[in-house]
Amino acid sequence: MLSATARRNAKEIYGRGGSFLLAHLNSAAVGVDVSGSSSSSASSSVGRLSTFAHLRRTNYFDEKDEDVGNNNNNAPSSSSSSSSSSSSLFEGGGARRSPSRRSRNHNRDDNAQRRFFSTSASRGDSESALKSRIESQIPDEIARLKQLKAKHGNEKVGEVTVNMVMGGMRGIVGMLYETSLLDANDGIRFRGLTIPELQEKLPGKRDREPIPEALLFLLLTNKVPTEEEVEALRVDLMGRAEKFAKECANDASKKNVFDVLRALPEETHPMTQLSAACLAMQNDSQFSKMYASGTMKKTEYWKYIYEDALDLIAKLPVVAAFIYKRSCVKEAARKSSEVPTVDASLDLAANFSQMMGFPSNECKELMRLYLTIHADHEGGNVSAHATHLVGSALSDPYLSFSAGLNGLAGPLHGLANQEVLKWLKEAQETLKGDYSAETVKTFVENTLKSGRVVPGYGHAVLRRTDPRYECQREFALKHLPDDEMFQLVSRLYEIVPDVLKATGKVQNPWPNVDAHSGVLLQHFGIKEENFYTVMFGVSRSIGCLSQLILSRAHGYAIERPKSVTSEWLEEKFQ
Ligand code: NMX
Ligand code: MLT
Q1: I need a labelling partner for 162 at 20 to 30 A (CA). Which of 11, 17, 286, 464 fits?
Q2: H or E stretch including 187?
Q3: Any catalytic annotation for residue 459?
Q4: Is 527 exposed, middle or buried (0-12, 13-18, 19+ CB in 10 A)?
Q5: What's the mean pLDDT when you consider all of the chain?
Q6: Ligand 1 centre from 58 Cα, in Å?
Q7: Which of 413, 466, 516, 523 is catalytic?
């Protein structure tokens, strides 16, 4: 039998589908004892994996699960046939696929499922299921890109004006980035899916929010995963996290990342700590070791980048929770410089919330939403582009993502979430509960007069309210409608856009993701705003590192755009 905690967690992770899964988990857990594992978390992990074979035998996939009912890529029943091994594996998944493509993709899913279930249950198998799916997609994808180049290589995708060159390259199409695409008016689409579509289609949700593992699978494969695929990835990531935390906590003979962090002054900004931690862990890079050995073929690069990337995605929440408890919380009772304990029976977001000291279901649910929506915002934003750029020099994921984090730490980018909460607190102090339109307007105007930007408003690409703001507002309306700071945030939404429009220069007066994240976090007790960008960073690793794997898999070139001097421009137009 599974422990009460494991039963509760299964329900929490899989929501309405959880009860059904649970019945099978219980029976599968019997097999765990036979394997001789005595660790409770390890046994529940292995138990979940052995469950998959069991589920297939019991024809679980013929059952209609309400949660994934709209998912065209639902796992097929064990009896469905496979027929499409010769067609392109890369066609499936996104929201805007034709029905015929969908059904071909469905068959391919069947193949992948079969490969998955034909293996015996262990963590290694779950790793190879996703990895072999990615591997099987690579040849077709490379062929597609080659054909694109051969057919259209010399065609123009746009014009470059002097304004663009002098204005932060705004609007210049200059890189390939497959995992997401931003439209100025529609907002972000992750592999073709909007945020409401993610909430509807991705499995693993307890109430409404998808779990980040499901998004990671989608970004890497361009396919909406089944519950079982998400579970396999969850087990893999949590296994990596648990191993990392245990090794660091127990092996005193080896200096590790936590020793490096303990050596930093407590007041070092949490983002500096997170970035330093990435560098401190670089010694673990399998890619770098293989490259140095001189034995790795170019076609194998992605395999080691994949291992490093998944390790890093798993390790970051543990490191971040450590930074939070050591350096951010003020109360002595909550402070700790111990390596956090990973509960491998939870999902990544729930475990992160718990490690930080917030075990409530509502906070875990918020963390799932938070880590999902901050993960990716196409390739041109500073953190994604910095990761991509550095990675293109074949720097490993630790080096590359550390660069991305350094960009995210800037106040015009990710640090804006910290700035927003500071600004909201300043507004609360100044306005003393008077949130009338007139006083709030004056407060915003005074912010501009003092030479500051209004944090959380504006965007380089978006020309509407950020859909990530909208879904967080929905969360607030559901979970904290009476929160005083939420009332202020709502009032600002009514006032700020007109004040920014009145400046006559702001291209987008609407709120972005950062205008809303802090108010949710502070409601659940995560009040230390200097930590907020670290949470953004934990999430952003999912998008940046997914693309890094694909970039190496598809053989992208080293980035080296042309720069010119201002004299060069002047001479050109004389
Ligand atoms: N408050 C005051 N002024 C603004 C704002 C704002 N929220 N947004 C833009 N402007 C100004 C901007 O500084 C520029 O002024 P100037 O010509 O004097 O240099 C002018 O309006 C035109 O800027 P835009 O073309 O509208 O915006 P741009 O693409 O240059 O910058 C941001 C985009 C996001 C950097 C900018 O809107 C901003 O600084 N927002 C506040 C900070 C923020 O919320 N950043 C988070 C973005 C999301 N994220 O997580 O990364
Ligand atoms: C992001 O999430 O990266 C921000 O919205 C900034 C951007 O897209 O430029």
Answers
A1: 464
A2: strand 187-190
A3: yes
A4: middle
A5: 83
A6: 56
A7: 413
